[in-house]
Design a protein that fits this description.
296 residues; alpha+beta; Hsp33 domain; CBS domain Like; 2 domains; six-stranded mixed β-sheet; five-stranded antiparallel β-sheet; 13 strands; binds zinc ion
Length: 296
């Protein structure tokens, strides 16, 4: 049995020593797969980063707050970009959706090979302050989960444990996706940290639990024991903020000369949104209006 709606739960455990997030993201990752026509190893890579984005939406205090995650490991997938907002929306894309490798030594999709291990993980948080927060760490694993664990430890000085998983069906659709993020709060005892590490190590693959019909709340109890206190539950879903108006402004920014060239050479313009693959066609008449309203 699978959940009809993706969501994230926020909880505390170990007498408030741990802040925990758990998510089921099958619908989100399935939508990304269909929109970008990703092949399985790419679905897994993009889906893991998107699941991380989904988990982080629950910590945003305002609908307009936004987090951008960018993984650039030098591998054949190119960039993986995910944007998550305080409204619970997540969108994302990769440079190369069509990759196919043999399974790795554990019989799993070889995400590390697609992502690469020579590059950086970037996090940009726009929390409505004058300057956005920027953090980055070198890619240490390419499997995504460990890379975020390293990011939280080094860049945010928060000992954390991250587990994410995506299970892809042979016909490319997504059977299960989800993740866990456990953060040890300041002043937590050593044994709390040890318990988190042990819980994660013993956690059966996140996706197995989700396939077996377990919900995020149950996943948390498996890892942290019965004293988990659920604080809140947040829906998450794919959504893109693009529009004709927005892409019209992109065209306008090309300027009078380029718009004139475009009109003469092609007679129309077609723009595709990176994040959702929506196509926007501007015909000759619309291009002329844009050109005439361009100031230079
Ligand atoms: Zn879009």
């Amino acid at each position: 049995m699978t959940q009809t709606q993706d969501y994230v739960v926020v909880a505390t455990a170990k007498d408030g020593g741990i802040l925990a997030y758990a998510a089921t993201t099958r619908h989100l990752v399935d939508e990304l797969q269909r929109r970008h026509d990703t092949w399985p190893v790419v679905t897994a890579a993009l889906g893991r980063v998107a699941t991380m984005g989904a988990l982080l939406t629950a910590g945003l205090k305002h609908p307009q707050h936004e987090i951008t995650l960018q993984v650039q490991g030098g591998g054949p997938i190119g960039k993986i970009v995910v944007v998550a907002t305080g409204l619970g929306t997540v969108k994302g894309y990769v440079d190369e959706p069509h990759l196919d490798f043999p399974l790795n030594e554990f019989g799993k999709l070889d995400v590390k090979r697609a992502v690469g291990q020579e590059g950086f993980l970037y996090v940009l948080k726009d929390l409505g302050l004058q300057e956005p927060y920027r953090g980055s760490v070198p890619i240490v694993s390419g499997e995504i989960g460990e890379d975020f664990t390293y990011y939280f430890a080094v860049s945010e000085q928060t000992p954390s444990a991250v587990a994410t998983g995506v299970l892809v069906a042979p016909e490319l659709s997504v059977l299960a996706a989800g993740g866990l993020l456990l953060q040890v709060l300041p002043d937590a005892a050593e044994e709390v940290i040890a318990a988190v590490e042990k819980g994660i190590a013993e956690l059966p693959q996140v996706t197995n639990l989700l396939v077996q019909g377990e919900d995020p709340e149950t996943m948390l109890r498996r890892v942290l024991g019965e004293d988990v206190k659920i604080l809140s539950r947040h829906p998450v879903a794919f959504s893109c903020s693009c529009s004709r108006e927005r892409l019209g402004r992109v065209l306008l920014s090309l300027g009078k000369q380029e718009l004139t060239d475009l009109l003469e050479e092609q007679g129309h313009a077609e723009l595709v949104c990176h994040f959702c693959s929506e196509r926007y066609l501007f015909d000759g008449e619309e291009l002329r209006v844009l050109r005439d309203s361009a100031r230079y």
